[in-house]
Design brief:
Blueprint (H helix, E strand, L loop, with lengths): L2 E2 L2 E2 H5 L4 H14 L3 H12 L7 H13 L8 H10 L4 H13 L7 H19 L7 H14 L2 H14 L5 H19 L24 H6 L8 H30 L3 H12 L7 H29 L4 H13 L6 H42 L6 H20 L6 H48 L1
Antiparallel strand pairs: 1-2
Protein backbone atom coordinates (compact mmCIF):
# COMPACT_ATOMS: atom_id res chain seq x y z
CA UNK A 1 0.00 0.00 0.00
CA UNK A 2 1.31 3.47 -0.94
CA UNK A 3 2.11 5.46 2.21
CA UNK A 4 3.90 8.65 3.03
CA UNK A 5 4.37 10.01 6.54
CA UNK A 6 2.02 7.21 7.72
CA UNK A 7 -0.72 8.46 5.34
CA UNK A 8 -2.30 5.96 2.94
CA UNK A 9 -2.97 6.78 -0.72
CA UNK A 10 -6.65 7.36 0.03
CA UNK A 11 -5.81 9.64 2.95
CA UNK A 12 -3.36 11.63 0.85
CA UNK A 13 -5.93 12.22 -1.88
CA UNK A 14 -8.53 13.26 0.73
CA UNK A 15 -6.00 15.52 2.45
CA UNK A 16 -7.35 19.02 3.09
CA UNK A 17 -4.23 20.40 1.41
CA UNK A 18 -4.77 18.52 -1.87
CA UNK A 19 -2.18 20.46 -3.88
CA UNK A 20 0.42 19.62 -1.26
CA UNK A 21 -0.80 16.01 -1.29
CA UNK A 22 0.08 15.72 -5.00
CA UNK A 23 3.71 16.36 -4.13
CA UNK A 24 3.77 13.92 -1.22
CA UNK A 25 2.03 11.26 -3.30
CA UNK A 26 4.70 11.71 -5.99
CA UNK A 27 7.40 11.37 -3.34
CA UNK A 28 5.75 8.23 -1.97
CA UNK A 29 6.02 6.65 -5.43
CA UNK A 30 9.56 8.06 -5.74
CA UNK A 31 10.72 6.32 -2.58
CA UNK A 32 9.22 3.05 -3.82
CA UNK A 33 11.20 3.42 -7.07
CA UNK A 34 7.90 3.59 -8.98
CA UNK A 35 9.23 6.46 -11.06
CA UNK A 36 6.51 6.39 -13.73
CA UNK A 37 3.76 7.19 -11.21
CA UNK A 38 6.10 9.50 -9.30
CA UNK A 39 6.58 11.68 -12.38
CA UNK A 40 2.82 11.88 -13.01
CA UNK A 41 2.17 13.46 -9.60
CA UNK A 42 5.37 15.48 -9.44
CA UNK A 43 4.70 16.99 -12.88
CA UNK A 44 1.14 17.78 -11.79
CA UNK A 45 2.63 19.63 -8.81
CA UNK A 46 5.33 21.34 -10.90
CA UNK A 47 2.85 22.59 -13.51
CA UNK A 48 0.36 23.85 -10.92
CA UNK A 49 0.61 27.69 -10.89
CA UNK A 50 1.41 29.03 -7.45
CA UNK A 51 2.03 25.60 -5.91
CA UNK A 52 4.67 26.08 -3.23
CA UNK A 53 5.97 22.55 -3.89
CA UNK A 54 6.48 23.10 -7.63
CA UNK A 55 10.22 23.79 -7.30
CA UNK A 56 10.79 20.71 -5.18
CA UNK A 57 8.84 18.58 -7.65
CA UNK A 58 10.98 19.92 -10.51
CA UNK A 59 14.12 19.08 -8.51
CA UNK A 60 13.22 15.41 -8.07
CA UNK A 61 12.14 15.00 -11.70
CA UNK A 62 15.56 16.45 -12.57
CA UNK A 63 17.21 13.80 -10.42
CA UNK A 64 15.38 11.10 -12.38
CA UNK A 65 16.69 12.56 -15.64
CA UNK A 66 20.26 12.55 -14.32
CA UNK A 67 19.83 8.95 -13.16
CA UNK A 68 18.49 8.10 -16.67
CA UNK A 69 15.51 6.15 -15.34
CA UNK A 70 12.94 8.00 -17.46
CA UNK A 71 12.25 7.55 -21.18
CA UNK A 72 14.26 10.11 -23.17
CA UNK A 73 16.22 11.12 -20.09
CA UNK A 74 18.76 13.86 -20.70
CA UNK A 75 21.03 16.13 -18.71
CA UNK A 76 19.68 19.10 -20.70
CA UNK A 77 16.19 18.44 -19.28
CA UNK A 78 17.65 17.87 -15.81
CA UNK A 79 19.42 21.24 -15.94
CA UNK A 80 16.23 23.07 -16.92
CA UNK A 81 14.35 21.37 -14.08
CA UNK A 82 17.01 22.19 -11.48
CA UNK A 83 16.92 25.82 -12.61
CA UNK A 84 13.14 25.89 -12.02
CA UNK A 85 13.84 25.38 -8.32
CA UNK A 86 15.73 28.67 -7.96
CA UNK A 87 15.58 28.76 -4.18
CA UNK A 88 16.72 25.17 -3.68
CA UNK A 89 20.33 24.84 -2.51
CA UNK A 90 20.62 21.27 -3.75
CA UNK A 91 19.11 22.19 -7.11
CA UNK A 92 21.66 24.98 -7.41
CA UNK A 93 24.49 22.56 -6.51
CA UNK A 94 23.25 20.03 -9.07
CA UNK A 95 22.81 22.70 -11.77
CA UNK A 96 26.34 23.88 -11.03
CA UNK A 97 27.76 20.40 -11.55
CA UNK A 98 25.81 20.00 -14.79
CA UNK A 99 27.06 23.34 -16.14
CA UNK A 100 30.59 22.47 -15.04
CA UNK A 101 30.70 18.94 -16.46
CA UNK A 102 28.50 19.59 -19.49
CA UNK A 103 25.15 18.37 -20.76
CA UNK A 104 24.36 17.00 -24.22
CA UNK A 105 24.38 20.48 -25.79
CA UNK A 106 26.05 22.94 -23.45
CA UNK A 107 28.94 23.40 -21.05
CA UNK A 108 29.85 26.48 -19.03
CA UNK A 109 32.49 25.63 -16.38
CA UNK A 110 32.68 29.22 -15.14
CA UNK A 111 28.93 29.43 -14.50
CA UNK A 112 28.97 25.95 -12.97
CA UNK A 113 31.77 26.88 -10.61
CA UNK A 114 29.92 30.05 -9.58
CA UNK A 115 26.70 28.15 -8.80
CA UNK A 116 28.57 25.48 -6.82
CA UNK A 117 30.40 28.09 -4.76
CA UNK A 118 27.10 29.91 -4.08
CA UNK A 119 25.51 26.65 -2.97
CA UNK A 120 28.51 25.86 -0.73
CA UNK A 121 28.29 29.31 0.89
CA UNK A 122 24.55 28.83 1.49
CA UNK A 123 25.20 25.42 3.03
CA UNK A 124 27.82 26.91 5.32
CA UNK A 125 25.40 29.62 6.45
CA UNK A 126 22.65 27.10 7.08
CA UNK A 127 24.91 24.76 8.99
CA UNK A 128 26.86 27.54 10.67
CA UNK A 129 30.21 25.82 10.17
CA UNK A 130 31.74 24.32 7.06
CA UNK A 131 33.20 21.46 9.15
CA UNK A 132 29.68 20.04 9.25
CA UNK A 133 29.57 19.61 5.48
CA UNK A 134 29.22 15.93 4.59
CA UNK A 135 32.26 13.91 3.54
CA UNK A 136 30.70 13.11 0.20
CA UNK A 137 30.05 16.76 -0.64
CA UNK A 138 33.64 17.67 0.25
CA UNK A 139 34.92 14.87 -1.94
CA UNK A 140 32.81 15.92 -4.93
CA UNK A 141 33.78 19.57 -4.55
CA UNK A 142 37.42 18.43 -4.49
CA UNK A 143 36.86 16.53 -7.73
CA UNK A 144 35.26 19.59 -9.30
CA UNK A 145 38.33 21.70 -8.48
CA UNK A 146 40.62 18.91 -9.72
CA UNK A 147 38.84 18.85 -13.07
CA UNK A 148 39.06 22.64 -13.21
CA UNK A 149 42.80 22.32 -12.68
CA UNK A 150 42.80 24.24 -9.37
CA UNK A 151 45.00 21.73 -7.55
CA UNK A 152 45.40 23.65 -4.29
CA UNK A 153 41.62 23.93 -3.76
CA UNK A 154 41.10 20.32 -4.81
CA UNK A 155 43.70 19.09 -2.31
CA UNK A 156 42.13 21.30 0.39
CA UNK A 157 38.73 19.63 -0.06
CA UNK A 158 40.20 16.14 -0.35
CA UNK A 159 41.95 16.76 2.99
CA UNK A 160 38.65 17.99 4.47
CA UNK A 161 37.10 14.74 3.27
CA UNK A 162 39.76 12.75 5.12
CA UNK A 163 39.30 14.86 8.26
CA UNK A 164 35.53 14.21 8.25
CA UNK A 165 35.88 10.44 7.83
CA UNK A 166 35.95 7.98 10.71
CA UNK A 167 38.59 5.30 10.07
CA UNK A 168 36.68 2.91 12.34
CA UNK A 169 34.23 2.34 9.47
CA UNK A 170 35.25 0.43 6.34
CA UNK A 171 33.30 2.72 3.97
CA UNK A 172 35.09 5.74 5.46
CA UNK A 173 38.46 3.97 5.13
CA UNK A 174 37.75 3.37 1.44
CA UNK A 175 36.86 7.04 0.93
CA UNK A 176 40.03 8.09 2.80
CA UNK A 177 42.10 5.87 0.52
CA UNK A 178 40.57 7.33 -2.66
CA UNK A 179 40.98 10.90 -1.36
CA UNK A 180 44.66 10.21 -0.58
CA UNK A 181 45.16 8.74 -4.04
CA UNK A 182 43.54 11.82 -5.58
CA UNK A 183 45.85 14.11 -3.58
CA UNK A 184 48.88 12.12 -4.72
CA UNK A 185 47.73 12.25 -8.36
CA UNK A 186 47.32 16.03 -8.14
CA UNK A 187 50.77 16.43 -6.63
CA UNK A 188 52.33 14.28 -9.34
CA UNK A 189 50.24 15.69 -12.19
CA UNK A 190 48.97 19.17 -11.33
CA UNK A 191 46.57 19.55 -14.28
CA UNK A 192 42.88 18.96 -15.01
CA UNK A 193 41.83 15.33 -14.75
CA UNK A 194 39.38 15.74 -17.61
CA UNK A 195 38.90 18.63 -20.02
CA UNK A 196 36.30 17.14 -22.37
CA UNK A 197 33.66 19.61 -23.40
CA UNK A 198 30.12 19.15 -24.57
CA UNK A 199 31.19 20.32 -28.02
CA UNK A 200 33.82 17.56 -28.11
CA UNK A 201 31.13 15.03 -27.34
CA UNK A 202 28.38 15.91 -24.87
CA UNK A 203 27.53 12.30 -24.00
CA UNK A 204 31.20 11.62 -23.43
CA UNK A 205 31.67 14.33 -20.80
CA UNK A 206 32.64 12.92 -17.45
CA UNK A 207 30.15 13.83 -14.74
CA UNK A 208 29.61 12.76 -11.19
CA UNK A 209 26.55 11.18 -9.66
CA UNK A 210 25.48 14.01 -7.42
CA UNK A 211 21.72 13.95 -7.90
CA UNK A 212 20.70 13.47 -4.29
CA UNK A 213 23.87 12.75 -2.34
CA UNK A 214 23.61 15.91 -0.30
CA UNK A 215 20.04 15.23 0.76
CA UNK A 216 21.08 11.91 2.28
CA UNK A 217 23.32 13.77 4.73
CA UNK A 218 22.07 17.30 5.28
CA UNK A 219 18.42 17.06 4.31
CA UNK A 220 16.41 19.46 2.23
CA UNK A 221 17.03 23.05 3.37
CA UNK A 222 13.81 24.31 1.80
CA UNK A 223 11.44 21.71 3.19
CA UNK A 224 9.43 22.71 6.23
CA UNK A 225 9.75 19.62 8.36
CA UNK A 226 8.01 18.44 11.49
CA UNK A 227 9.98 17.05 14.42
CA UNK A 228 8.80 13.57 13.39
CA UNK A 229 10.07 14.10 9.84
CA UNK A 230 13.43 15.35 11.09
CA UNK A 231 13.82 12.28 13.32
CA UNK A 232 12.84 10.02 10.42
CA UNK A 233 15.44 11.72 8.21
CA UNK A 234 18.14 11.26 10.83
CA UNK A 235 17.29 7.58 11.14
CA UNK A 236 17.30 7.23 7.37
CA UNK A 237 20.67 8.98 7.15
CA UNK A 238 22.14 6.60 9.70
CA UNK A 239 20.93 3.65 7.63
CA UNK A 240 22.02 5.09 4.29
CA UNK A 241 25.33 6.58 5.43
CA UNK A 242 27.51 3.59 4.53
CA UNK A 243 25.56 2.97 1.32
CA UNK A 244 26.11 6.56 0.18
CA UNK A 245 29.83 6.44 0.89
CA UNK A 246 30.15 3.13 -0.94
CA UNK A 247 28.11 4.62 -3.79
CA UNK A 248 30.44 7.59 -4.23
CA UNK A 249 33.52 5.37 -4.01
CA UNK A 250 32.16 3.09 -6.73
CA UNK A 251 31.21 6.06 -8.93
CA UNK A 252 34.73 7.42 -8.58
CA UNK A 253 36.17 4.02 -9.50
CA UNK A 254 33.82 3.84 -12.48
CA UNK A 255 35.10 7.19 -13.76
CA UNK A 256 38.65 5.77 -13.73
CA UNK A 257 37.85 2.22 -14.91
CA UNK A 258 39.43 1.13 -18.20
CA UNK A 259 39.54 -2.67 -18.44
CA UNK A 260 36.82 -5.27 -18.93
CA UNK A 261 37.67 -6.81 -15.54
CA UNK A 262 37.28 -3.40 -13.85
CA UNK A 263 33.78 -2.97 -15.27
CA UNK A 264 32.81 -6.59 -14.52
CA UNK A 265 33.73 -6.11 -10.87
CA UNK A 266 31.96 -2.75 -10.66
CA UNK A 267 28.79 -4.16 -12.24
CA UNK A 268 28.65 -6.82 -9.52
CA UNK A 269 29.29 -4.26 -6.77
CA UNK A 270 26.56 -1.92 -8.06
CA UNK A 271 24.12 -4.85 -8.30
CA UNK A 272 24.94 -5.77 -4.71
CA UNK A 273 23.64 -2.37 -3.56
CA UNK A 274 20.09 -3.62 -4.25
CA UNK A 275 18.77 -0.68 -6.27
CA UNK A 276 20.21 2.10 -4.10
CA UNK A 277 19.74 5.37 -6.02
CA UNK A 278 20.69 4.75 -9.69
CA UNK A 279 22.92 1.71 -9.02
CA UNK A 280 20.75 -0.46 -11.25
CA UNK A 281 21.41 1.89 -14.16
CA UNK A 282 25.13 2.13 -13.28
CA UNK A 283 25.39 -1.67 -13.15
CA UNK A 284 23.81 -1.86 -16.59
CA UNK A 285 26.20 0.79 -17.87
CA UNK A 286 29.19 -1.17 -16.52
CA UNK A 287 27.83 -4.35 -18.11
CA UNK A 288 27.52 -2.45 -21.37
CA UNK A 289 31.17 -1.41 -21.11
CA UNK A 290 32.14 -5.07 -20.61
CA UNK A 291 30.86 -5.55 -24.17
CA UNK A 292 31.78 -2.12 -25.54
CA UNK A 293 35.52 -2.41 -24.81
CA UNK A 294 36.08 -5.66 -26.77
CA UNK A 295 33.61 -4.48 -29.43
CA UNK A 296 35.67 -1.33 -30.05
CA UNK A 297 38.90 -3.35 -30.06
CA UNK A 298 37.47 -5.84 -32.56
CA UNK A 299 36.26 -3.02 -34.82
CA UNK A 300 39.77 -1.54 -34.83
CA UNK A 301 41.23 -4.98 -35.55
CA UNK A 302 38.82 -5.43 -38.45
CA UNK A 303 39.83 -2.12 -40.01
CA UNK A 304 43.49 -2.98 -39.48
CA UNK A 305 42.97 -6.39 -41.07
CA UNK A 306 41.48 -4.77 -44.18
CA UNK A 307 44.22 -2.14 -44.55
CA UNK A 308 47.10 -4.51 -43.72
CA UNK A 309 45.82 -7.48 -45.74
CA UNK A 310 45.69 -10.06 -42.96
CA UNK A 311 45.01 -13.66 -43.96
CA UNK A 312 41.61 -15.32 -43.89
CA UNK A 313 42.33 -17.19 -40.62
CA UNK A 314 42.74 -13.89 -38.75
CA UNK A 315 39.41 -12.61 -40.06
CA UNK A 316 37.60 -15.85 -39.23
CA UNK A 317 38.96 -15.72 -35.69
CA UNK A 318 37.74 -12.12 -35.46
CA UNK A 319 34.28 -13.19 -36.65
CA UNK A 320 34.14 -15.72 -33.79
CA UNK A 321 35.02 -12.96 -31.30
CA UNK A 322 32.21 -10.75 -32.62
CA UNK A 323 29.74 -13.64 -32.28
CA UNK A 324 30.74 -14.11 -28.64
CA UNK A 325 29.33 -10.58 -28.06
CA UNK A 326 25.90 -11.89 -29.11
CA UNK A 327 23.39 -9.22 -30.10
CA UNK A 328 25.46 -6.30 -28.85
CA UNK A 329 25.14 -3.46 -31.37
CA UNK A 330 25.92 -4.79 -34.89
CA UNK A 331 28.27 -7.56 -33.73
CA UNK A 332 26.49 -10.23 -35.78
CA UNK A 333 26.63 -8.07 -38.91
CA UNK A 334 30.34 -7.44 -38.34
CA UNK A 335 30.92 -11.17 -37.84
CA UNK A 336 29.21 -11.84 -41.17
CA UNK A 337 31.33 -9.10 -42.78
CA UNK A 338 34.54 -10.65 -41.42
CA UNK A 339 33.50 -14.07 -42.74
CA UNK A 340 32.73 -12.51 -46.14
CA UNK A 341 36.11 -10.76 -46.21
CA UNK A 342 37.82 -14.04 -45.30
CA UNK A 343 35.97 -15.80 -48.12
CA UNK A 344 36.98 -13.05 -50.56
CA UNK A 345 40.62 -13.58 -49.60
CA UNK A 346 40.24 -17.34 -50.11
CA UNK A 347 38.62 -16.85 -53.51
CA UNK A 348 41.23 -14.31 -54.50
CA UNK A 349 44.01 -16.69 -53.49
CA UNK A 350 42.26 -19.47 -55.34
CA UNK A 351 41.98 -17.32 -58.45
CA UNK A 352 45.65 -16.37 -58.17
CA UNK A 353 46.58 -20.02 -57.66
CA UNK A 354 44.52 -21.00 -60.71
CA UNK A 355 46.24 -18.32 -62.82
CA UNK A 356 49.68 -19.43 -61.63
CA UNK A 357 48.81 -23.05 -62.35
CA UNK A 358 47.64 -22.11 -65.84
CA UNK A 359 50.90 -20.23 -66.52
CA UNK A 360 52.95 -23.11 -65.15
CA UNK A 361 51.17 -25.64 -67.34
CA UNK A 362 51.59 -23.37 -70.37
CA UNK A 363 55.36 -23.02 -69.79
CA UNK A 364 55.67 -26.75 -69.12
CA UNK A 365 53.88 -27.57 -72.38
CA UNK A 366 56.16 -25.20 -74.32
CA UNK A 367 59.38 -26.70 -72.98
CA UNK A 368 58.20 -30.24 -73.61
CA UNK A 369 57.19 -29.39 -77.17
CA UNK A 370 60.54 -27.71 -77.76
CA UNK A 371 62.45 -30.67 -76.32
CA UNK A 372 60.50 -33.05 -78.56
CA UNK A 373 61.21 -30.91 -81.61
CA UNK A 374 64.87 -29.96 -81.29
CA UNK A 375 65.49 -29.46 -85.04
CA UNK A 376 67.92 -26.85 -86.18
CA UNK A 377 70.66 -27.09 -88.82
CA UNK A 378 72.07 -23.58 -89.17
CA UNK A 379 73.48 -21.12 -86.70
CA UNK A 380 70.40 -18.95 -87.07
CA UNK A 381 68.22 -21.98 -86.27
CA UNK A 382 70.19 -22.56 -83.08
CA UNK A 383 69.95 -18.85 -82.13
CA UNK A 384 66.17 -18.97 -82.58
CA UNK A 385 65.94 -22.14 -80.46
CA UNK A 386 68.08 -20.46 -77.74
CA UNK A 387 65.71 -17.46 -77.75
CA UNK A 388 62.68 -19.78 -77.41
CA UNK A 389 64.27 -21.46 -74.37
CA UNK A 390 65.12 -18.03 -72.93
CA UNK A 391 61.47 -16.93 -73.23
CA UNK A 392 60.24 -20.18 -71.65
CA UNK A 393 62.83 -19.76 -68.88
CA UNK A 394 61.53 -16.26 -68.14
CA UNK A 395 58.03 -17.71 -67.73
CA UNK A 396 59.35 -20.23 -65.17
CA UNK A 397 61.35 -17.47 -63.48
CA UNK A 398 58.12 -15.45 -63.00
CA UNK A 399 56.68 -18.48 -61.18
CA UNK A 400 59.59 -18.59 -58.70
CA UNK A 401 58.80 -20.89 -55.80
CA UNK A 402 55.87 -22.58 -57.50
CA UNK A 403 56.33 -26.33 -57.72
CA UNK A 404 59.50 -27.15 -59.73
CA UNK A 405 59.63 -23.90 -61.70
CA UNK A 406 63.15 -23.24 -60.47
CA UNK A 407 64.34 -26.58 -61.90
CA UNK A 408 62.86 -25.85 -65.32
CA UNK A 409 64.25 -22.32 -65.27
CA UNK A 410 67.74 -23.73 -64.66
CA UNK A 411 67.22 -26.29 -67.45
CA UNK A 412 66.17 -23.53 -69.86
CA UNK A 413 69.23 -21.48 -68.94
CA UNK A 414 71.42 -24.52 -69.66
CA UNK A 415 69.74 -25.11 -73.02
CA UNK A 416 70.08 -21.44 -73.96
CA UNK A 417 73.80 -21.68 -73.25
CA UNK A 418 74.13 -24.92 -75.24
CA UNK A 419 72.29 -23.62 -78.30
CA UNK A 420 74.17 -20.36 -78.27
CA UNK A 421 77.41 -22.36 -78.34
CA UNK A 422 76.08 -24.54 -81.17
CA UNK A 423 75.09 -21.39 -83.05
CA UNK A 424 78.54 -19.92 -82.55
CA UNK A 425 80.17 -23.09 -83.91
CA UNK A 426 77.83 -23.20 -86.91
CA UNK A 427 78.43 -19.54 -87.67
CA UNK A 428 82.23 -19.96 -87.26
CA UNK A 429 82.24 -23.05 -89.53
CA UNK A 430 80.18 -21.18 -92.12
CA UNK A 431 82.64 -18.31 -92.06
CA UNK A 432 85.57 -20.73 -92.49
CA UNK A 433 83.84 -22.39 -95.43
CA UNK A 434 83.24 -19.09 -97.22
CA UNK A 435 86.83 -17.99 -96.66
CA UNK A 436 88.06 -21.27 -98.12
CA UNK A 437 85.77 -20.90 -101.12
CA UNK A 438 86.98 -17.37 -101.71
CA UNK A 439 90.63 -18.48 -101.54
CA UNK A 440 90.01 -21.32 -103.96
CA UNK A 441 88.34 -18.97 -106.41
CA UNK A 442 91.26 -16.59 -106.21
CA UNK A 443 93.70 -19.42 -106.86
CA UNK A 444 91.55 -20.63 -109.76
CA UNK A 445 91.46 -17.23 -111.42
CA UNK A 446 95.18 -16.75 -110.82
CA UNK A 447 96.08 -20.10 -112.44
CA UNK A 448 93.72 -19.42 -115.33
CA UNK A 449 95.37 -16.10 -116.01
CA UNK A 450 98.84 -17.65 -115.92
CA UNK A 451 97.93 -20.40 -118.41
CA UNK A 452 96.52 -18.03 -121.00
CA UNK A 453 99.48 -15.73 -120.68
Amino acid sequence: MIEYDNLSLEELLRHTHAREAWYWLGMAYFERNDFGNAVIWLEKTMNDPGNEWAGKAAHYIGELHVAKVLPNSSRDKALRLFEKNQEGILSKLNAGFLYHQGTETKRDPAKGKKLIEEAINQLIKVKGNDNHLAQIECFKIGEMYAIEGISAKAIEYFKKTIDRCDSNFESDRNLIEIAKESIQELKNTPKPINTASAEEGGQGCQYYYFESAASAFIGDMNMEMTKENIQELKERNLNDNDLEKQYVILCSRKNKAQSVNDFKELAGLFRAMNGYKDTKYLAEECERMVLEIPYSNYCSSKNSAISNSHDENYLRALAKEFRILGNYKDSEALAIECDALAQQIVEKKRAVDNEIYRKYQSALKKIKEQLDNQGGKTGDDFLNIAQVYKNIGNEFKALAGYRDSAKYFAKCETLVSEYNKKAEKKIARKKTMWVTICLLLLVFFFLKTCIYN
